Hints:
This protein is α/β, with parallel strands linked by helices. The chain has helices spanning 13-32, 66-71, 101-104, 108-124, 194-198, 204-219, and strands at residues 2-10, 39-46, 50-53, 75-78, 85-88, 92-98, 131-133, 136-141, 149-159, 162-170, 190-191.
Amino acid sequence: MTLNIIDEGVCPYSIMLSKQRRLFKQMVDLKKGGVPVEKEYILMVEHPSVITLGRHAKETNVLFDEEELSRRGVELYHIERGGDVTYHGPGQLIAYPLIDLEYHRLGVKDYVELLEEVVIRTIADFGIVGERVAGASGVWIESGTIRERKICALGVKCSRFITMHGLALNVNTDLGGFDLINPCGFIDKGVTSMASELGSLVPLQQVKNSLSSYFRSLLGF
Length: 221
């Protein structure tokens, strides 16, 4: 098995969604045919402003109609991942792993915890303490306090043990984009970024390097 980590730079959501679906279908078709998957992928990307709603998302968690969102230059997509609603925008590092969980002997819960661990270790490299919150996927700061705030959202799809979609880590993200939604369906929790926590912009390439390194080590590459 080889793991291909591809830096896609800044790319519209629709293009990356098509690429994910194409690779996902190729990998699922191999599994259906009883053929071993030999290549896995992690696509790293920034998106122009876009809101995505998962399978069980509530439309009411998007606080503006599509006409107003369009006026603001924000696209809207209904997609096949789990989770509710989230915002993607410049300065946010997104990782889309297309992984064979069967090969790695991982269940979906194990996989979600692995994604969280990748992020927790990555932000620790920059002096930020990330934590989990029971019943709420993703990575959080100061969990269990009144200042609890989310720094990374997760949402995945899995079929025939192949994954798609993934994680969105707020690095230098303009957090004003989250005012368009109830992030992940919550109305009582804040959102933050690495830049907000550190008080200065963070070199995105360094974050990509850390994220890539921890993906490789935790997946056994």
